[in-house]
Design brief:
The chain is built from 13 helices and eight strands. The chain is an alpha/beta fold and 313 residues long. The protein has one domain: Alpha/Beta hydrolase fold, catalytic domain (Rossmann fold, 3-Layer(aba) Sandwich), CATH 3.40.50. The chain has an eight-stranded mixed beta sheet, sandwiched between helices. The chain is globular.
């Protein structure tokens, strides 16, 4: 990767943590005199803590900032296990209990949003507030399949998800040319698609057992108990929440935001015109300013009324 400045400065000090026998990588950066609740960044599918490189240094000027690789991704162990949102939420909780120990602002992107929301619901003591950059909901897919067709669909998916086929698919997907094409689909800002970004996604796929983990993840994601229904989960939370969504997101379409925007009076919904699936990386200055403003008014636990920002109708 290009070394324009040290990774320690960009993503904080990196450390390894042994969780349930699995190696987990995390980073942290703390100011001399923190002035707000700590933050914990949780990446999306296929990403890693480096995906927050444009956010960590800015946020760490005022408060302690942590980032963690979810089991199966980044610098974490590529385990052959039964993955689920609940398992990752347990990882988040145990990390928090070990290293942070005070109410924390959880910040997630895509899968990371789903994991952070699940952690906030399962362990209310750990979350001061919740920030989500788009929010997938696997239950919507299940609900869209007629009851009479679900067993047939499951059988077909199982046939196409046989390990030999998945390993072949994985060898294709981890090629850098394919990763770049994925980024061009996910990102609305072409200038953000750099060689370094491609490496952030491609390098972990070369790790030992990465193909095994990919097969386990693919199998788990098709299970109905992979994650809770997000709308009903958010409706039950009593903490401040920020949901920001790129209007040009093609991975988790912006149209899905309507399912969430009115589900809880503590939720602030902010559409992001011209942004795609990873607005924190596509337009980091814009996202950092949004997050800092929200933290100053609501995210550190201040009671407030519902704030729904709408643009262009």
């Amino acid at each position: 990767m290009p070394q324009t400045q040290s990774w320690s400065r960009r993503i904080g000090r990196q450390r390894d943590w042994l969780w349930r026998g699995w190696q987990i990588r995390y980073s942290y950066q703390r100011p001399t005199h923190p002035t707000g609740s700590p933050l914990l960044f949780v990446h999306g599918f296929g990403a890693a803590i480096e995906h927050w490189q444009h956010n960590i240094p800015v946020l760490a000027e005022q408060r302690a900032v942590y980032a963690i690789d979810l089991l199966g991704f980044g610098g974490a162990r590529k385990a052959a296990t039964d993955y689920s949102a609940s398992l990752w939420a347990e990882q988040i909780h145990d990390f928090w209990a070990t290293f942070i120990g005070e109410p924390t602002v959880l910040v997630g992107n895509s899968l990371g949003s789903l994991v952070c929301a699940t952690a906030a619901a399962q362990y209310p003591e750990l979350a001061r507030s919740l920030v989500m950059l788009n929010l997938p909901d696997v239950s919507l897919r299940q609900a869209a399949i007629p009851v009479w067709a679900r067993s047939l669909v499951a059988s077909m998916e199982n046939a196409f998800a046989a390990p030999p086929l998945l390993r072949l698919l994985f060898r294709l997907l981890r090629q850098r040319s394919v990763v770049r094409r994925w980024a061009q689909f996910a990102y609305a800002e072409p200038a953000a698609i750099t060689d370094e970004l491609v490496e952030i996604f491609a390098l972990p796929a070369s790790d030992r057992d990465a193909a095994i983990a990919f097969c386990a993840l693919s199998r788990a994601a098709r299970q109905p108990n992979f994650a809770p229904a997000m709308r009903s989960l958010l409706a039950q939370l009593s903490l401040p929440m920020l949901l920001a969504w790129g209007e040009r997101d093609r991975m988790v379409p912006f149209s899905l935001a309507r399912y969430y925007r009115d589900c809880n009076p503590r939720l602030t919904f902010v559409p992001l015109p011209g942004r795609g699936h990873c607005p924190h990386d596509e337009a980091p200055a814009e996202f950092n300013a949004l997050l800092l403003d929200w933290l100053a008014t609501e995210g550190d636990g201040v009671e407030s009324k519902l704030a729904v920002v709408t643009r262009n109708g």
